[in-house]
Amino acid sequence: MRVLAVIPARGGSAGIPLKNLAQVGGVPLVTRAVKAALGAELVDQVVVSTDHEGIAAAACEAGATVVERPAELSGGTASSESAVLHALDALGGDPEVVVLVQCTSAFIDPADLSQAVRRVLDGEADAVLSGAPSHAFLWTPDGAGINHDRSTRQMRQDRPAEFRETGAFYVMRTAGLREHGHRFFGEVTVQPVPTRHAIEIDEPEDLETARALAPLVDLPGPIDVDAVITDFDGVHTDDRAYVDSEGREMVLVSRSDGMGISLLRRSGVKLLVMSTEQNPVVAARARKLGVPVLQGLAEKRTVLRDWLTIEGLDPARVAYVGNDVNDLGPMSLVGWPVTVPDAHPSVKAAARVVLTRSGGDGAVRELCERVLAARPAVQDPAPAPVPLSRASLRIGQPKPVAIGDLLVGDGEPVYMIGEIGINHNGDIDIARRLIDVAADAGCQAVKFQKRTPEICVPVEQRSQMRQTPWGEMTYLEYKERTEFGREEYTQIAKYCDERGLHWFASPWDVPSVEFLEEMDVLVHKIASASVADHELLRALAATGKPLILSTGMSTLQEIDQAVDILGTDKLIMMHATSTYPLPPEEANLRTITTLKERYGVPVGYSGHERGLQISLAAVTLGAVTVERHITLDRTMWGSDHAASLEPAGLEHLVRDIRIIEQAMGDGVKRVFPGEEAPKARLRRVTV
């Protein structure tokens, strides 16, 4: 061993009780010193000399060797050199160089420490100390200049820099320390360190200064946790609300947060949003992100403690992100208290990490990326092969399919689709209102239908006369009248983006596929009526986009042929029965399991029933996405309105599905905190 670092860290302290365990940036000072020394590439071993069990435990956890410091070397008058010499004797066998590292310096750059060690190893000096450059004018109390002539005022840039000893580290030849008994001998030189690293903590004010500097000085690093809990206002938003004339609130969020949350869920990290507010805006955003939410909380710390117990999580491996004083309680409970740069000062002082991005401007995404940096990369399993014959074939757990910034599949929140279809009746204003209905209910997407009428309308039906709200016209004229073109879909795309929704459509012919590709939709939906249209299926497969295949009015053999064309790599199936409205006896929900086992792809449910029960049951059977027709009023003119959900019905459906997702649990039998009191009161144990 050539280089040994020794960190003296006694339990006593005159200015700050148990100073060496005081936290800066959420990390004990002794831990920060150990990590800095271990990070210096030329240091071979790190030893902490201490007389305190708590300090010893923290040092061991950080990766240091502990040497028990005797009482006679642990008092306030004992020198740091005595601790270093004792550690050398305890270890036996002197290294060439010994480094004294002090916990009182919270910001030690391992690169600076390594450079100082190299200077001693290379023979440039016998001892090197850390020093911060200074051009300060020093005075005696009686007004005499110490490092300047007061009669000749020099410009700052004309004066050579002097160096203030920071106390962070001292690098010495071991033989010289043994010979002289102190750290300054032979050729002594200074290792310059940045002024921002030069805080030495002796008094409580120094500790507060270091805590305030930590977010600015500490380099961003991985955050190794198993769960992330966030406040909402000021974390997901910029802490402002926009209120319209009817009192409805809107907030500003960052769309980039959605992808970060999606990747975090995929990596296995548990997520939760907590808010003291009882606000539909919070619930809607949480549904969009697919994250469970607890609202209207009077005391966050107690609720978080119970949640951690239920989930079986170690609080030390949990991050909580807050921005105001009501977040101090839950932040004190976890190992990784995190905040945003514009947080309340007391919250910033309590944080282990202060993010660089503000709430509503990517703070959540930044946090997600730092958590992901500490976790092994998630490897997608190889797609299951698609054989020509699938009878009695069982395939492993289907992998999720990415649609934009969301994953659709087992273990992910149910992807809710509000099918507008042709219920807009050719009116862009009705389409916008239906988009609002879907967004307000918490859907992730809306779906339309796209046709080229002269292709899709059979020749024998084109001239048939129809009574419509716009008067009598041929069936072809009616279809053309209700079909949206580029101008309308451009408006739809823009409005869906503003409302945070995906949008796509079911193309009924090849030119419609080309049209939707020009609109750059995220995914294509294949209607049940198109399962056997192999020309259309080949055009859709060629797009390379994710595909959602409805299977109504189809046999397994017909579906086999369709899947052979489409492949399974980016395929989601929808169990459907194409009866309008759907009677319960034709729902056949167990087909969800049949399709999943036969094709090895995520399977959802496209419903045409009245009411909510069948769709809710589909979720309990594993449906990963639910699609329902939506309307402003079931009595409106048109063929699909009667089997559609009105706004209140859609809102209740999404709400109940999110409740079911939470209620399904993980299948691990446990005693929950709410059961403890009844158990103590009611349980009778006999032998």
Short description:
By secondary structure, the protein is α/β, with parallel strands linked by helices. It is built from 24 helices and 29 strands. Strands 24-21-20-29-28-27-26-25 form an eight-stranded parallel beta sheet. It has a seven-stranded mixed beta sheet with strand order 5-4-1-6-8-7-9, sandwiched between helices. Strands 14-13-10-15-16-17 form a six-stranded parallel beta sheet.
Report on this model:
- The chain is α/β, with parallel strands linked by helices and 687 residues long.
- The chain contains 24 helices and 29 strands.
- Strands 24-21-20-29-28-27-26-25 form an eight-stranded parallel beta sheet.
The rough form would be described as elongated
**Cα distance, first to last residue?**
62 Å
> What average pLDDT do the residues reach?
89
Oligomer: single chain
- The overall strand count is 29
SS summary, helix count: 24
What does the radius of gyration come to?
34 Å
**Stretches where pLDDT falls below 50 for ≥5 residues?**
379-395
| Range of helix content | 25-40%
User: Biggest sheet: strands, sense, closure?
Assistant: 8 strands, parallel
Q: Percent of residues in beta strands?
A: 15-25%
Strand order of the largest sheet: 24-21-20-29-28-27-26-25
Structural class: alpha/beta
